[in-house]
């Protein structure tokens, strides 16, 4: 079923958590197929059995069999089993087993019309304070207070999320204005970003961006990288609220961090000048 869903548009899975989500998707589609065929067949059988040419007089006694009630009860039981046996446990794992900042790469993402502001804590792994009154859409869109503790090595990107492969990622998600929806389809991540709330999202990538691109060869997505999608209509510019995800190997991610630290140092020197 998973292969069939891929043919109908399900993106390739490249996260540890994605297999469980895909399993629930497959079970749900099988269940819906059985229900469609079963109820469709029952409807056709009813049309044939009770057609006017064979039943010229109405039967006021009605159906005496309880088979239809038993079928409805069986469908309800199956749906309850799928809900409590698969869907709830997977959701519980997502919301209850959030890794702590010390055991994961901790990132903050602040959504706004129409961009993703991505805040990294720097080499010390600790975030500096952000203050709404310091927000400057050109120079400081997250309102980072450079004079606060731990803020010296913090840096941020806009619409560019970089993470390492085979490492737990924790993202604290919020919004500056309206509700947005943070989506990484290949990593099976979809979470609303809500103003005034910080919502944790966690995942672990199983392949790098280069490895992903190899899987797209010969398909309609050939050469197209991983994207951050906003799945919530958030205003007139919703169509352009798109970011990009790059998954590095360990060495590549460290090289990218070093590059950002060097750029931050150069920026501070320019400010001093």
What does this 3D model show about the protein?
The protein has 273 residues and is an alpha+beta fold. The chain folds into two domains: 2-96, Helix Hairpins, CATH 1.10.287; 103-272, Immunoglobulin-like (Sandwich), CATH 2.60.40.420. The protein contains five helices and ten strands, in the order αααββββββββαββα. The strands form two sheets. The protein has a five-stranded mixed beta sheet. A five-stranded mixed beta sheet has the order 4-10-9-6-7. A hairpin with a 4-residue loop joins strand 6 (180-184) and strand 7 (189-193). Helix 2 (18-49) runs antiparallel to helix 3. The chain is elongated. The mean pLDDT is 88.
Cα Rg: 26 Å
User: According to CATH, what is the class of the largest domain?
Assistant: Mainly Beta
**Secondary-structure-derived class:** alpha+beta
Beta strand %: 15-25%
Please tally the β strands and state the result: 10
Mean pLDDT across the residues is 88
Describe the strand arrangement of the main beta sheet, using strand numbers.
Answer: 3-2-1-5-8
Q: How are helices and strands ordered from N to C?
A: HHHEEEEEEEEHEEH
Largest sheet: 5 strands, mixed
CATH architecture annotation of the largest domain: Sandwich
Q: Write the CATH homologous superfamily of the largest domain.
A: Cupredoxins -  blue copper proteins
User: What fold name goes in the CATH topology slot of the largest domain?
Assistant: Immunoglobulin-like
* N/C terminus separation: 62 Å
Helix tally?
5
> What is the count of structural domains?
2
Unreliable spans? none
């Amino acid at each position: 079923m998973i292969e069939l869903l891929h043919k109908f548009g399900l993106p390739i899975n490249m996260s540890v958590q994605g297999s469980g989500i895909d399993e629930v998707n497959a079970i749900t589609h099988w269940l819906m197929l059985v229900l469609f065929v079963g109820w469709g067949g029952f409807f056709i059988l009813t049309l044939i059995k009770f057609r006017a040419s064979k039943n010229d007089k109405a039967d006021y006694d009605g159906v005496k069999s309880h088979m239809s009630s038993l079928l409805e009860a069986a469908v309800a039981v199956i749906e309850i089993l799928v809900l409590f046996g698969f869907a709830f446990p997977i959701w519980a794992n997502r919301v209850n087993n959030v890794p702590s900042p010390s055991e994961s790469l901790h990132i903050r993402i602040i959504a706004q019309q129409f961009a993703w502001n991505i805040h990294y804590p720097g080499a010390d792994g600790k975030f500096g304070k952000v203050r709404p009154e310091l927000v400057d859409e050109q120079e400081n869109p997250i309102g980072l207070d450079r004079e606060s503790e731990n803020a010296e090595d913090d840096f941020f990107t806009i619409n560019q999320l970089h993470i390492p492969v085979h490492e737990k990622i924790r993202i604290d998600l919020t919004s500056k204005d309206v509700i947005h929806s943070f989506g990484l389809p290949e990593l099976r991540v979809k979470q609303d970003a809500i103003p005034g709330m910080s919502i944790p999202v966690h995942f672990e990538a199983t392949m790098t961006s280069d490895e992903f691109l190899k899987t797209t060869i010969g398909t309609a997505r050939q050469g197209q990288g991983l994207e951050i999608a906003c799945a919530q209509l958030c205003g007139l510019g919703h169509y352009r609220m798109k970011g990009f995800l790059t998954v590095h190997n360990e060495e590549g991610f460290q090289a990218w961090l070093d590059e950002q630290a060097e750029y931050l140092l150069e920026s501070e020197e320019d400010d001093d000048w």
